[in-house]
Amino acid sequence: xxxxxxxxxxxxxxxxxxxxxxxxxxxxxxxxxxxxxxxxxxxxxxxxxxxxxxxxxxxxxxxxxxxxxxxxxxxxxxxxxxxxxxxxxxxxxxxxxxxxxxxxxxxxxxxxxxxxxxxxxxxxxxxxxxxxxxxxxxxxxxxxxxxxxxxxxxxxxxxxxxxx
Length: 164
Fold this sequence. Notes:
The chain has helices spanning 2-21, 42-67, 75-96, 101-125, 129-140, 144-150, 154-157. The chain is mostly helical and 164 residues long.
């Protein structure tokens, strides 16, 4: 029974870390494949960044929401899927090429989150739930939701499955 209670608390910590981090997921239906244009104004580029990031985040949030809350047996799959979703989101946001400092900070936050999620999945694979919990704290410290808000990316700051 004690082990079951620990795993339940661990699952809450993992899910809580992802929710507090404001992580959506990856995969986007955005058709913007912004090749770096050598001639373009900063304002248009910034608008392209916002629309591309918001579209990618909307898709990512739907993918994360669809995962639901994992049970003990699904923690590894949940973390692996979330890692892939965030990695793809990062690639899309990075390709959008935001030029502002807030946009760069959000992009860097996603870049930082990917290896943390990878470490969490590896720890879950090894049934090292203490490490998963500690890494969830590291994920929270990235403050992705706050970085998205600072970059004025409302959809990216939303909690998947949270109130609209």
